[in-house]
């Protein structure tokens, strides 16, 4: 079930890269699959809260900088890595997002926006290792 959740997270990131939208049905299904399939539900739920929480706050404080879909995607990714991997997930997400922002700024100029979902999904790789 966790593998299926990771697949849905990756699919949501691809859709975000193409359309700048993260479908709730994918993120919701991913979160449910991961929470149900996790051997430690409390740790997975804590990882979801700690990963999604900061992005949720950012989405409320700076709506143009971060969307709620990104926060929900981060929560699903946090459930995958659990409490022990959430710090690595957030650090990798920030570093990948920063690198993406730099590339976008160089190519399109300052003020350009980009989909953050791929950074969240790619950050699962180092967080799972």
Low-pLDDT segments, ≥5 res: none
Intertermini distance? 19 Å
SS strand fraction? under 5%
**Based on helices, strands and strand pairing, what is the structural class?**
mainly alpha
For the record, the count of structural domains works out to 1
Structure summary:
This protein is an all-alpha fold and 129 residues long. The chain is built from 5 helices and no strands. The chain starts with a helix and ends with a helix.
Explain what this protein looks like in three dimensions.
There is one protein chain. The two termini are 19 Å apart. Helices cover 82% and strands 0% of the residues. The mean pLDDT is 95. It is built from five helices and no strands. The protein is globular. It has one domain. The relative contact order is 0.18. The longest helix is centred in the last third of the chain and has 41 residues. Helix 1 packs antiparallel against helix 5 and helix 4 crosses helix 5. The chain is mainly α.
Lay out the secondary structure:
Layout: H1 2-19, H2 24-37, H3 41-61, H4 68-108, H5 117-128
Helix pairs in contact: 1-2, 1-4, 1-5, 2-3, 2-4, 3-4, 4-5
Question: Any key phrases for this structure?
Answer:
mainly alpha, about 130 residues, globular, 5 helices
């Amino acid at each position: 079930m966790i593998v299926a959740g990771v697949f849905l997270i990756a699919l949501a990131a691809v859709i975000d890269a193409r359309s700048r939208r993260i479908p709730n049905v994918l993120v919701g299904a991913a979160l449910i699959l991961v929470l149900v399939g996790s051997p430690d539900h409390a740790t997975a739920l804590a990882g979801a809260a700690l990963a999604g929480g900061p992005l949720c706050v950012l989405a409320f404080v700076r709506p143009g900088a971060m969307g709620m879909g990104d926060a929900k995607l981060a929560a699903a990714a946090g459930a995958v890595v659990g409490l022990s991997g959430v710090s690595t997930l957030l650090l990798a997400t920030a570093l990948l997002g920063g690198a993406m922002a730099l590339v976008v700024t160089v190519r399109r100029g300052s003020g350009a926006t980009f989909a953050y979902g791929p950074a969240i999904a790619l950050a699962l790789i180092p967080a799972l290792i």
